[in-house]
């Protein structure tokens, strides 16, 4: 880990000296919130509705985008399911702008304290709120209002109220801002990856606008985490923002989504480590952590990362998704355990409904995973990853974490019952005890670095965990 300084300059060399704070490394679990005007229609195409072969067609992928927060873009495909839904539900000439009015009205029913208490109950240690998504709608009453849409922001200070509620529960608070896309400045339908990277810039007056928002968000809310999305229209402007941020919040951090059209493109910008799944954004010159989307790494890499995904196929609430579309509690537990074993965190999204209430199925999952972390969290949070000689045992993938007192062997599934042999990491302290968290161990021994353990009953969990007490 590089050293932390208290005076950062707006240069790549200076900003790259910033270190990821320990609170993030210890947390392992955060809550993402996508909530805005798009939560009113709460519609996105479902995966099975894509035409055969659409996965290989980029334009089809955007037309059938499963992210409900992309509603304003997907409705522009006149022959697509979102446009059809919009016409049939609201009428041909019904403007997306009306959803902003409806969203503001819904805030009368919003209780940020209740949300924060649930997030605390889930075992998460930080919360990241989308303050502006691609539709440009602001979740705080900014002094820099949108020049193209009147009242295109909340009347209530959603950002400030949630920050206060979350911090009152002892959680960290971060902000997401869509720096690379704002459809109120460039309203062209995004059909290709090239369209995605065609950011509004100086010609549209967007750089000054986005800069002002970032300065306002940093000064007003002192976010513990700055989560930019897509990219930023000016590399130097991004450096200026990060310097201001690091100097104001030295124990903060940022992500890896600051790529700029006028910036430097490193030779490894599009490097995709072997064994990863999902989408990985191109690497900018300055970043603290990598953020694979709907994806994971399956081994320890020389950087920290955070997987981000919705409980279903969408980040924002999609009323067409049901319980069967959401990750099971066991799936969430497996994701948390695997991420912790391989140097990562999980930023799991909650998509509130358009009536300012949380979806009961999503809320239930947060409560269930919170109960799981009460007993199993010792193997996840406040730990560091440990490399094992083998990646699997009996066909089940494995990983390990440790704290000062114990090594935790974690199995993402259930090996066969009976006697297992597991090669332990070299240089390990003397093992003084062994237990299976939530299960039973009949006998165990260690010889020449190999753990031999007999198990006749596994825990009734998706993740099986052995806790090895270590001599101090």
Characterization of the model:
The protein has 472 residues and is of the alpha/beta class. A hairpin with a 3-residue loop joins β10 (396-402) and β11. The chain has 13 helices and 16 strands. The chain folds into 2 domains: 12-379, Glycosidases (TIM Barrel); 386-470, Golgi alpha-mannosidase II (Immunoglobulin-like, Sandwich), CATH 2.60.40.1180. The radius of gyration is 23 Å and the shape is globular.
How do the helices and strands line up, and which of them pair or pack?
Elements: H1 12-15, H2 22-27, E1 29-33, H3 58-63, H4 71-74, H5 81-90, H6 97-106, H7 112-121, E2 126-132, H8 158-168, E3 172-178, H9 193-196, H10 206-221, E4 225-229, H11 235-248, E5 253-254, E6 305-310, H12 329-341, E7 344-350, H13 360-376, E8 384-385, E9 392-393, E10 396-402, E11 406-411, E12 418-423, E13 431-436, E14 443-447, E15 450-455, E16 464-470
Parallel strand pairs: 1-2, 1-7, 2-3, 3-4, 4-5, 6-7
Antiparallel strand pairs: 8-10, 9-10, 10-11, 11-16, 12-15, 13-16, 14-15
Helix pairs in contact: 7-8, 7-13, 10-11, 12-13
